[in-house]
Amino acid sequence: MAGRLDLEQLRIEIADGTIDTVVLGFTDMQGRLQGKRLSAEYFLSDVVGHAAEGCNYLLAVDVEMNTVDGYAMSSWSTGYGDFVLQPDFSTLHRIPWHPGSVGVLADLEWLDGTPVVASPRQILRKQADRLAERGWKAYAGTELEFVVYKDSYEEAWNAGYRNLTPANQYNVDYSLLGTARIEPLLRRIRLAMTGAGLTVESAKGECNPGQHEIAFLYDEVTAACDHHVIYKNGAKEIAAQDGVSLTFMAKVNEREGNSCHIHMSVRGTDGSPVFADSPAVFDQFLAGQLKYLRELTLLFAPNINSYKRYADGSFAPTAIAWGHDNRTCALRVVGHGSGLRFENRVPGADVNPYLASAAMIVAGLAGVEEELELEPELVGNAYTSDAPRVPTTLRAAREAFASSSLARTAFGNDVVDHYLNAADVELKAFDAAVTDWELRRGFERL
Which domains can be identified in the chain, with CATH numbers? Predict the structure, then answer.
């Protein structure tokens, strides 16, 4: 595939001077790419066959990279040692927006070679292995929305992220005229991602002023998540190079939020469509999503801000229900024949795709193992239905995850406790913060 290369080709291009930098990265708890830029020669001589190392605090910090208490794997008391970044050479890709650079994603291991179980990519791999035991593979596609501002990231920072100028003044959902206004940026992102080995499907405008979406072809679930993080990081870097900014916050203002709908299907190792060939399996897999959605919402909506999306009439779901091509439901069934799949509309663009996809596999397998019966579809407006509701706060989702026996059985206590602590850290920080809302209401009038 264009944009991809193997070790042999990498050696050739390093030798002829085409490549001088290798970006070695992994995905942290927050879904961000972290890592190092390495001299290409050093990468070949010292990392290939040996791996690299990084401080294990990278899976035990908050969004602002503060060291925090409560993580068993990494703390002051353990000395904040290293873990190993083991390159997955199947992910070698070009980085066209950084000339002379290629990227490779890493799996995290301890120094003795055992996996770092709290690593998001490892968490997904474990659940993909459970599918493989049945002769199945999950395929996924993520749809990331973002809002573009004319302000640079530095200007946005200096303005306190207030009163920024969106790239569009009005709703440009499906508008060719409106999206043409920033087509140079969107085109640059699309072409750059194609050059990195991703398969771009389309770009379209969305409802919130300045809001857009670029969609990519589905792939095997781990590869799809790899593409997600490469794209998300790359889009920000390209925006910065163009002197503008874009945000994947779930809810950047009171208008429509940024979603990350995740489509999922299952195929046999021979490529046969399991959902189409076995309607009973599809029903059970979907029933598992419904039964366990509340318990696993923390992995779909990991931040305080995530829950601001869930508003009636916003195209973000509030009701835990399913329907055929019904965008008011949390779970939307789409496709026909071999393309039959379901769309999880709960995640926002701030989601960690590995964790969310792992949660969907866990819920689906539970539905199959328990032979759950699928409830009737919801026809009509789910916002006004009496269906169970999606948790509306991080605190509620945290409590549901903490009490989930399924989560502890499927992920293990170490993983569950790790991500519960991440939620606790965010809740504690938010509870201590004095917000603009409080100042506006209380500075003079209270």
Answer: 7-117 (3.10.20.70), 127-419 (3.30.590.10)
